[in-house]
Design goal:
The chain starts with a strand and ends with a strand. It has 118 residues and is mostly beta strands. It has strands at residues 3-6, 9-11, 17-23, 32-38, 44-51, 56-58, 66-71, 76-81, 90-99, 104-108, 112-116.
């Protein structure tokens, strides 16, 4: 399983970006797909996820600014980010959770950097 995330870049505050995560195989293999981002402490915090049953979860900081969606025909997950703020600057990673006999295997993309600057 390979995930390739892209779409990061430099934008001004209030601007928009659309991140993409292309999977090497069908998205339906994942119990959950989503976006995470690196915190100043080096951890990865949840940005947005979609579970197999279609449940969507957003991090509290999103506050209606981001939208996660998927195109199964293209095996691609997206994150539309609007109203970007300085504090949104970091590296964003996509993740897919592959069910295993016990638990899940987390497949990660390599990350795409988002920089908000005036």
């Amino acid at each position: 399983v390979k995930l390739v995330d892209s779409g990061g870049g430099l934008v001004q505050p209030g601007g928009s970006l659309r991140l993409s995560c292309a999977a090497s195989e069908t998205l339906s293999q994942f119990d959950l797909v989503g976006w995470f981002r690196r915190t100043p402490e080096g951890l990865r915090e949840l940005v947005a996820t979609i579970s197999r049953d279609g449940t969507i979860t957003y991090g509290e900081f999103v506050k209606g600014r981001f939208t996660i969606f998927r195109d199964d025909a293209k095996n691609t997950l997206y994150l539309q980010m609007n109203g970007l703020k300085f504090e949104d600057s970091t590296v964003y990673f996509c993740r897919g959770d592959v069910p295993q006999v016990y638990g899940h295997f987390h497949a990660w993309g390599e990350g795409t950097r988002v920089t908000i600057s005036s």
